[in-house]
C-alpha cells in the first residue's frame, strides 16, 4: 500500500478523507518546484578537476519549431542562495559574438590558465569574482548562427535586431517553463558592446509580454544601463552635460550650474 493510501486510514470513511488529496497536491507542487531539467545538468568540464561550487546547466531551447531554430544557453546557479538570488541574463554583442566570451573571459565561474604543453587544454580555476557568487547567471548565444545557436533553415542567419529580440523573448518564456523554481526570482538583463542594442529591445519585448499577461510571468526588474552611459560619453555620442545628468543624477559637477 502506498503512503498516500495509508494516510486515509482503514474503514468506510477512508475514501472521503481529504488527507490523501492534500498530500498528493503537495507532492505535485514539490515535484514542480524542483523541475530543473536533469538532462541539461553539467557535471564536469575539460581542464577542471573537482566539484563545481554550484550546479551548472546547459542545453538548447527551440524558439521556432517550423524552421528548427534553437538557442543555446549555459546557466550557473548562484553559490549563495539560488532559490532567492536574482536571475541575470548575460549577452555579449558583436554583433555575432558568443556570450561564452563573457563566461570565459569576464564574469564566469572560472579563470583560465594556459596549457602546460603547446596545444594542450587550458586549466580551469575558480574565479573568486564570478557573478555566480550572488546570482543565477545565464549566458545566451543569440541570435541563431551565433556561437552554438543554430537553425535548420539557413535563411534564418539573415536577421535583424527586432527578430533577435522576439526570439530571445520566446526563449525566455520557454526557458522559465524549464526552470519554474526560478520564475519568482528577480530577473535582470545585462551585457556589453552591441548588447546595448540587444538589451533594451529585449526588455521592451519582456515588458510587452507582461502587459499581455503572457505565461509564465517574468519577474523583470531592470537592465544594465549605467555601463552604456560612460561608453556613449566616451564615444562622443552624448555631451558631458547629459552624461553627468545620467551618471551623477545632477549638474552639480558642472561649474555653469553655480553661476
From TrEMBL:
It comes from the Eukaryota. This is Uncharacterized protein. It comes from Avena sativa.
